[in-house]
């Protein structure tokens, strides 16, 4: 599924479209260059999910946990991971296979650890205010 967003205010609509597209899938990976808006889009997605916590990039902690009425959302940022063992050290399996929503930035750094089923979100910068989104279902 492809869509284009022309402003920050349109991110909520894109987040709704992603959740509809995902159906029952719980693991989402986000790809895009630095500054493409991955964390900004994740904030909009969390708002659609009903998260009331402050959503921020877990760049240094690797994972943040946000509460919602139907469970929790785990938000990962593997940008600064130096070794795949760091993902093992935080117990990635307990998160990825918990049945809760997992939002993963920089998934290429832990590609071999991704579950068999996930939703891939690609974000491309078209201009300072415009982004192209591509949503796809991936089954290894």
UniProtKB/TrEMBL annotation:
GO MF term (any one): metal ion binding
Top-level taxon of the source organism: Bacteria
GO terms for biological process, alphabetical: tRNA threonylcarbamoyladenosine modification
Keyword annotations of the record: ATP-binding, Cytoplasm, Magnesium, Metal-binding, Nucleotide-binding, tRNA processing
Location within or outside the cell: Cytoplasm
One GO term describing the cellular component: cytoplasm
NCBIfam families: T6A_YjeE
Family statement: Belongs to the TsaE family.
Protein name: tRNA threonylcarbamoyladenosine biosynthesis protein TsaE
UniProt source species: Pedobacter westerhofensis
């Amino acid at each position: 599924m492809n869509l284009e967003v022309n402003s920050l205010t349109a991110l909520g609509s894109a987040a709704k479209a992603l959740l509809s597209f995902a159906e029952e899938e719980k693991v989402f990976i986000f790809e895009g260059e630095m500054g493409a808006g991955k964390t900004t889009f994740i904030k909009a997605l969390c708002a659609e999910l009903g998260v009331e916590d402050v959503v921020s990039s877990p760049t240094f902690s690797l994972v943040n946990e946000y509460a919602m009425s139907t469970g929790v959302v785990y938000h990962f940022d593997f940008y600064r991971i130096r070794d795949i063992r760091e993902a093992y050290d935080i117990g990635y399996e307990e998160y990825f296979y918990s049945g809760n929503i997992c939002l993963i930035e920089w998934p290429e750094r832990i590609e071999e650890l991704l579950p068999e089923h996930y939703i891939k979100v690609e974000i491309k910068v078209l201009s300072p205010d415009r982004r192209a989104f591509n949503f796809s279902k991936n089954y290894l």
